[in-house]
Design a protein that fits this description.
It is a single chain. This protein is an alpha+beta fold. The chain has 5 domains: 30 residues; 135 residues, no CATH class; 65 residues, no CATH class; 55 residues, no CATH class; 82 residues, DNA Binding (I), subunit A. The protein has 16 helices and 12 strands. The strands form 5 sheets. The protein has a 3-stranded antiparallel β-sheet with strand order 3-4-5. Helix 3 crosses helix 4 and helix 4 packs across helix 5.
C-alpha cells in the first residue's frame, strides 16, 4: 500500500538523486582535460561510459514507470516514446529504445543488475529486448542475460536470436523461419532534419547483401584522392541507381552482384542443415543457400585439413540456348497476371536441384516476388514446366500454363551469367 509518507520520501529521494547527478556532471565538465595523462583520459572515458549506461538504465526504468502512470495521456502524443521525444527534443528512435530497455528490465530484473554492475552496456541490453518479450512461459531469460554479459550489441542480438529459435512455443521449419523474417522487411523514412532524411532498410540477410553489393558496385572503387567514407560511397551508389531508373536507363537484370557463399558439400546435397555463410560473415540458412546455388557459379574446393588439394568449377545455370528457349516459352514471369519481363526474371527449378534436372521441363521463369511465393512453406507444385499448377498453403490453386507466343515478339535480351 502506497502511503502519503512513502510518496513524500520518494519525492525527496528522487530530487536528491537528480541534484547529485547534476552536481556530478557539472564537476566532471569542469575538469581540465588537457592536464590529464593519456592513461587517465582512457580510464575516465571508460568509466564515464559505464556511468552513462547505468544512468540510461535508470532513465529507462523511470520512463517505463511514467508510461504505466499514463504521463502521456491527454497530451496528443501517440504513446510514451512520442511524448518523451517531444519533451526532450530527442529522436523518436532514441525515446523508443528507452521504452524497450525499461520494458525488458521490468520483465527480467537481472538485466538491470548486469548494466548496474558494468557487465552489459545499455545498447547490448536493449538488443535483448525482442528475445525477452517473445520468450515463452518458463523460458530462462535470466540465463540469456548471463550468457550475454560482456557482449557487444551485435553479439547480444545474435544471442537473443538463437534464444528465440530455441524457445519458440511452436518449433519452426527452416522455411517457416525464413517466411517470418521475410514478413519483417521494410523501408522507413524519418523526419527531415537540416535538409536530410534518415531511412531505415530492413531486409533478409541475402537480399540485404545483394542491396549493399549492388550500390557498392555502382559507386565504383575509390580512386586516388577520393575522400568519401564507405557510407558516403554507398549513398552515392544508391543515388546513381535511382537516377538511372528515373532516366529510363535501368535495363537487363540478369547480371547480379557476386556473393561469395561457403557451404558444406553435405549441406549442399541435403544430408545436413548446417548454415552457410557469406564472406561478410552473414549467416544463411541451409535451404536458402541451396536455392541460391540453383542460379550460381559454383566452385568446388576439396580440402584435407587446412590444405586445399583441388579446385574445380561446375556450371549449374541454364545454358544459353535454354535461357533463350525459356524467354520464348515463358515470356516473363509465369505467375498469372504478372507482367515482369524475362530480362528481370530468375530461372527456377520446379523440382529443386539436384533432385530435379536442369532441363526445360523443370525450368521456369519467375520475378523475384513470385519466386519467393513459390518457395513459401506448404506450397505444392504439380505438373511440369510446360503446364503446371501451384497449390498455396491456404488451398488456393494457381494454374500456370505457358503463354502463346505473341506476334512480333522481340529477340531475347543479351544474357549475362548470374552469380550468387
Amino acid at each position: 500500500m502506497v502511503t502519503d509518507e512513502l510518496v513524500f520520501c520518494s519525492l525527496i529521494r528522487i530530487d536528491t538523486a537528480l541534484a547529485t547527478c547534476d552536481s556530478g556532471i557539472s564537476a566532471l565538465a569542469a575538469v581540465s582535460l588537457s592536464c590529464l595523462t593519456r592513461n587517465a583520459l582512457g580510464v575516465a572515458s571508460v568509466r564515464v561510459q559505464t556511468m552513462i549506461d547505468r544512468l540510461t538504465m535508470a532513465h529507462a526504468q523511470i520512463v517505463t514507470a511514467a508510461d504505466r502512470a499514463g504521463v502521456w495521456a491527454g497530451s496528443g502524443a501517440r504513446n510514451m516514446a512520442d511524448w518523451s521525444a517531444l519533451q526532450t527534443k530527442t529522436s523518436y528512435g532514441d525515446a523508443n529504445d528507452r521504452m524497450r530497455l525499461g520494458d525488458a528490465a521490468d520483465s527480467v530484473p537481472e538485466l538491470a543488475d548486469a548494466v548496474a554492475a558494468g557487465q552489459l552496456s545499455a545498447k547490448s541490453a536493449t538488443a535483448l529486448h525482442p528475445a525477452i518479450k517473445e520468450a515463452t512461459h518458463g523460458a530462462d531469460t535470466a540465463a540469456l542475460v548471463q550468457k550475454a554479459k560482456g557482449s557487444t550489441p551485435r553479439e547480444a542480438a545474435a544471442a537473443g536470436e538463437k534464444f528465440r529459435d530455441n524457445n519458440r512455443a511452436k518449433p519452426e521449419t527452416p522455411e517457416e523461419a525464413e517466411e517470418r523474417r521475410y514478413r519483417r522487411r521494410s523501408v522507413r523514412s524519418g523526419q527531415p532534419d537540416d535538409g536530410m532524411v534518415t531511412s531505415t532498410v530492413v531486409l533478409p540477410v541475402v537480399e540485404h547483401r545483394k542491396f549493399i553489393n549492388a550500390i557498392s558496385h555502382l559507386a565504383g572503387t575509390p580512386c586516388e584522392g577520393d575522400q568519401r567514407t564507405t557510407e558516403q560511397r554507398l549513398a552515392d551508389g544508391l543515388t546513381l541507381l535511382c537516377d538511372a531508373y528515373a532516366k529510363g536507363d535501368v535495363n537487363g537484370g540478369r547480371e547480379r552482384p557476386t556473393i561469395l557463399l561457403v557451404i558444406d558439400a553435405d549441406t549442399m546435397s541435403g544430408d545436413n542443415e548446417h548454415d552457410a555463410h557469406t564472406a561478410n560473415a552473414d549467416r544463411v540458412p541451409a535451404h536458402v543457400a541451396r536455392r541460391m546455388a540453383e542460379n550460381a557459379h559454383l566452385q568446388r574446393v576439396i580440402r584435407v585439413g587446412s590444405q586445399i588439394i583441388d579446385l574445380g568449377r561446375t556450371a549449374r545455370l541454364a545454358s544459353e540456348s535454354q535461357y533463350r528457349a525459356l524467354v520464348v516459352r515463358d515470356q516473363g514471369c509465369r505467375w498469372p497476371g504478372c507482367h515482369i519481363p524475362s530480362a528481370w526474371c530468375e530461372i527456377d527449378h520446379l523440382e529443386p536441384f539436384p533432385a530435379g534436372p536442369t532441363n526445360l521441363a523443370n525450368l521456369v521463369m519467375w520475378c523475384s516476388h513470385h519466386h519467393h511465393e513459390k518457395h513459401r512453406p506448404g506450397v505444392v507444385v504439380r505438373g511440369n514446366a510446360h503446364d503446371f499448377s501451384i497449390t498455396l498453403a491456404n488451398g488456393t490453386i494457381i494454374h500456370c500454363p505457358t503463354t502463346p507466343v505473341r506476334a512480333g515478339e522481340r529477340s531475347p535480351p543479351p544474357r549475362t551469367q548470374a552469380a550468387a
